[in-house]
Each structure stands twice: as structure tokens, then as C-alpha cells.
Amino acid sequence: MNIKGTTKLLGVIGYPISHSFSPRMHNAAINHLGADFAYLPFPIKPEDLAKAIAGFEAIDLVGFSVTIPHKQTIIPLLQEITPFAQLVGAVNTVYRTPLGWCGTNTDVTGFIAPLQQLNRDWSEITPIILGNGGAARAVVVGCAELGCPEIHVIGRDKDKLAHFQQNWQNTSLTSKINVHSWDKLEGLVSQSGFLINTTPVGMHPHIDQSPLTENLSGKIQPGAIAYDLIYNPRPTKFLRDLEQQGAICFDGLEMLVQQGAAALKIWLNQEVPVEIMRSAIIN
Ligand code: NAP
User: Fold this and answer.
1) CATH code of the domain occupying 109-251
2) Is residue 93 packed enough to be buried (19+ CB in 10 Å), middle (13-18) or exposed (0-12)?
3) Cys bridge to 247: 49, 208, 237, 242, which one at CB 3.0-4.6 A?
4) Catalytic residue at 219?
5) How many angstroms from the chain centroid is the CA of residue 41?
6) Euclidean distance between CA atoms 58 and 63, whole angstroms
């Protein structure tokens, strides 16, 4: 990397941040393009968030990615927020506008990118989302963007589930979303052609776990789509079991790559080499 007096800064904020793949992925693309940018990891404690944002303005940072635990708490510190980020209720990408910092959410774009390659009539497909955390919110918005008329969300904590449902009130999605406890999953699986895991169950090192029992995996519709947001391991047990039943499977790597590519495209204002970003992570 050729850092000069003119080099412009990008980065990612989170706490902790040392595990992040983003610096590797973005700098690979920046190097490939020969762009005069550098992308750095910034470990920012929750109590230092406002100071960090003010500092970024002072050093004229061009933009930054946002990860746990700042995706929601950053919202009041920004001057603008896009309708996508507003609907998801979380920001993962920040860029400069004449008004100041603008927050958006590229997880939705990342989630739907591999699905758009499929030739499906999404108005006929009813997704079941396992888990009701932060990523599930981007997945709900993604499913609605695809055109799914009805979306089912499964969660284990009644209060969190009720809160999840309430969060969509006064949005265009409120009538589409149905929440259920895990014991209702069995009755829903056979009616669904699209199952998405947004829980961390099955993530390294617990690679022999799945949020779905093998018995339930056998009940999916022929030609169903299975999507796991986890990218380590590839594939997870959830996907291995469903692939055996004939499902078309997607893991979380492409979502990770595509959300990053969508962010870099905003900051650099040009097309970005997605295949270089993908191989930087795989390697
Ligand atoms: P989160 O906000 O903590 O939500 C996790 C959800 O999973 C919660 O609803 C949680 O329920 C549920 N859950 C956790 N353990 C469970 C278990 N043993 N059984 C049933 N449900 C369980 O996390 P997140 O940010 O949404 O991330 C979720 C996953 O998506 C992680 O694996 C993350 O790496 C992945 N992800 C991938 C991408 C990508 O680009 N590929 C992007 C974002 C996230 P409770 O609330 O009841 O604990």
C-alpha cells in the first residue's frame, strides 16, 4: 500500500474490532484500483463514540463501516439517515454529504444480491427467518424488497419477539410480519420455500450444531432455498442438512462481500472489483 500525503482515510468502527475481515477486503480492492485511499480498523469503546465521530470530522475521514456495538447507537450522532437504514433501525455504513454524516445500511443489498441471480417469483415465496436479532431486521427488509408478501420470524424470547413486532409499526412492513415461538416452527416449515438462519447457532467452533433438527430439515418443500448468514464454517450443518434434502443453499460470505462492495462503491463513487474482495476473504 502506497500511503502518501494525499491519501484519504476510510475505516471500520466496532469494539472489539481485531477479528474484522473488512480492512483486508477493502484494502485489497483499493490496491487493485490504485485508488489513493487506506481503510483502517478503529476500536472505539461505546462511551467514546461521540468523541470518535467528532474526531473523524476533524481529520476529514471520507466514510466508515459500523459494526457491533455501534449499529444503533450511532443513529442520533448522524445528520442524515437513509430510508433503508431507518427501516432496518441500524446503520452499517457512513458517508459524507453537504449536510454532514449520512448513515445507510448495505446489509440489505448484501443479503439480496445472491438471491437476485435466482429466477424466482418472490410473490409466491414465504420466508421463515430463524432469530430476531439485528441481522434479522436487515433480512426482513431484504425479503420485502424481493417482493415476499408475508414474512415469518421465529424467536425464543417472548418479550424480545413482541418488541421486534412492535418495531415495524408505522412502517410499510407492519402487515407483512408474523412472529412465532420456536415450537410453531414444525407447523411452518413444510409451507415454506425459503428458510434463513440469522442465529449464531452452528458458528465456529460449534460446527456440529444447527437451529433446525434433522427431522425438520426433512420437511422442507422440494426446491426450497436455504440461507445461513454464518460464513465460518462454510457450509454450516444447517446448510449441509438442507442441501441433502435438495435445497438451494447460500452461506453468509457473499452477503459479507456484497455489503462491503456496496459501501466502497459509495465512498469511492466508482465500480469496485467484487471478485478481488471475495478472494481477499476466502484466502
Ligand atoms: P444478534 O443481534 O445477537 O441476534 C442473534 C439472534 O439469534 C437473537 O434473536 C438470539 O436470540 C438468537 N439466538 C442466539 N442463540 C440462540 C440459540 N441457541 N437458539 C435460538 N436462538 C438463538 O446477532 P446478529 O447481529 O443478528 O447476528 C446473527 C448472526 O448473523 C451471527 O452469526 C453473525 O455473524 C451473522 N451475520 C452475518 C452477516 C453477513 O454479512 N454474512 C451480517 C450480520 C450478521 P436472543 O435475543 O433470545 O438471545
Assistant:
1) 3.40.50.720
2) buried
3) 242
4) no
5) 19
6) 13
Residue that is written with C-alpha cell 427431522 in the block: 215
| CA 160/CA 181 separation, integer angstroms | 11
90's CB contacts (< 8 A; 6+ apart) are: 71, 72, 75, 105, 107, 134, 137, 138
Probe target for ligand 1 pocket from 196, 198, 207, 251, with the most ligand atoms within 8 Å of CB? 198
CATH code for 8-105+255-282? 3.40.50.10860
For the entire predicted model, the pTM comes to 0.94
Q: What are 192-251's pLDDT values in tens digits?
A: 899 999 999 999 999 999 999 989 999 998 899 999 999 999 999 999 999 999 999 999
Contact 176, 154 (CB under 8 A): no
Ranges in the chain, pLDDT < 50: none
Q: How far is CA 99 from the centre of its chain?
A: 26
Cis bond leading into 46, ω under 30°? no
- The answer to whether 8-105+255-282 and 109-251 have equal CATH topology is yes
